[in-house]
Amino acid sequence: MKIISWNVNGVRAVMKKDFAQSFATMAPDILCLQETKAQDDQVFETLDWLEEYHLYAFSAEKKGYSGTAIISKTEPVDVYSGLGIAEHDTEGRVLTAEYEDFYLVTVYTPNSQNELARLPYRQNWDVCFRDYLLELQGSKPVIACGDFNVAHQAIDLARPKANYNKTPGYSQQEIDGFSALLDAGFIDSWRDQHPEEIKYSWWSYRAGARAKNIGWRIDYLIASQQLREQIHSTDILNDIHGSDHCPVQLQLK
């Protein structure tokens, strides 16, 4: 089973940037999207050309903002929207598909914003999201994928010293939040298989950052530790364009 996660930075915008061709090239069994920037009906309308796939969306109350979606060849047992916590569920950031053998969660983690203005909210989010995954893991293994908005280690961004505790996504609090998630029984599947490799999944649109590969690895596929032996391969698909993020991929045996 090939599971791919992609922050598309607007599902309607990415459709104008060869998304259909990229989808055919990737050939996913499941594609999880973040930052759809569309209401549910707009997501369904934009992706109505997809055949042989089941489509689910969870949109923010604010139009043109945030949002997640799951495109699945196999129909899930059930689909759940949000964390079940009112203060966290107005922005369409978490969508869960339950399959026979595991839960799949797609997440668009809140950005701490300039000058880390939203960091306290982000810290609370990290705790609530971790608790949610642990609750799911109590009944079956979990794969959680998406834009986690954090570079976990210095190897995960091009300029760690310049950004540490100054730029959202690389504060010690955010790093600690992600570490706590892994310590709770999850693995960073790509880093687990590529312990020394430098590869990024997001680049600023400014100053030709992608062409210069001045990037960050902030998109992850994390998995319950008991799934480690079932993970055949992982990849970061740098050759797929259309967003400021590229897709990340996990294949299960």
In a nutshell, what does this entry contain?
The chain has helices at residues 11-15, 19-26, 40-46, 119-137, 160-163, 172-183, 189-193, 209-212, and strands at 2-7, 30-34, 54-58, 68-72, 78-81, 94-98, 103-108, 142-147, 186-188, 202-203, 215-216, 219-224, 231-236, 248-252.
Describe what this molecule looks like in 3D.
The chain is an alpha+beta fold and 253 residues long. It has a single domain, classed as Endonuclease/exonuclease/phosphatase (Deoxyribonuclease I, Chain A). 25% of the residues lie in helices and 26% in strands. It contains 8 helices and 14 strands. The strands form 3 sheets. The protein has a 6-stranded mixed beta sheet with strand order 3-4-2-1-14-13. The chain has a 6-stranded mixed beta sheet with strand order 5-6-7-8-12-9. A two-stranded antiparallel ribbon has the order 10-11. Helix 4 links the parallel strand 7 and strand 8. It is globular. The mean pLDDT is 97.
Low-confidence stretches: none
SS-based structural class?
alpha+beta
Stated plainly, the CATH topology is called Deoxyribonuclease I, Chain A
Our Rg estimate from Cα atoms comes to 17 Å
Task: Furnish the topology, listing elements before pairings.
Elements: E1 2-7, H1 11-15, H2 19-26, E2 30-34, H3 40-46, E3 54-58, E4 68-72, E5 78-81, E6 94-98, E7 103-108, H4 119-137, E8 142-147, H5 160-163, H6 172-183, E9 186-188, H7 189-193, E10 202-203, H8 209-212, E11 215-216, E12 219-224, E13 231-236, E14 248-252
Parallel strand pairs: 1-2, 7-8
Antiparallel strand pairs: 1-14, 2-4, 3-4, 5-6, 6-7, 8-12, 9-12, 10-11, 13-14
Helix pairs in contact: 4-6
